Amino acid sequence: MLMGNIDHSSGLCNGTRLIVTKLGTHILEAQMMSVINAGKKFLIPKLSLTPSDLKLAFTFQRRQFPLILNYAMTINKSQGQSLERVGVFLRRPIFTHGQLYVAISRVTSPSGLKFVIYDDDGNRPRRLYMWFTRKYIIICNFIYIYLLLLQQHIH
Q1: Which of 130, 132, 142, 148 is deepest in the core (most CB within 10 A)?
Q2: Under 8 Å between Cβ of 47 and 40
Q3: What are the coiled-coil residue ranges (predicted)?
């Protein structure tokens, strides 16, 4: 995953998923995985980084590729992407119903969707796990009715 904005017009922005296809000493070739420019290859150079800690008695620079190995992303980061496989890890309940929709609508096929859900005590509920093995799952999405009524009153 790209860790900085290199070329916004080409889609090389912070959070862009890439597959490294060639690795050189000072430059690498990477193939874009996102919907925009999917499959297109880009050359990405090493960047010079200087620490922002001014308390040091000396200065130094480090050169590195602006990439990080990525196995997961936040729900917000996944927005606008289509993925073959999505695993939703919920240690705590999702705080808005829109987030749940975004999380489960990223996958291109229901067979590519998997959930890991924990209860309020941090344990994986046995009942929920059994439901999952039967190919269905129930997720409670709490909505405060007061907020809905307030929103209707404003509009």
Answers
A1: 132
A2: no
A3: none
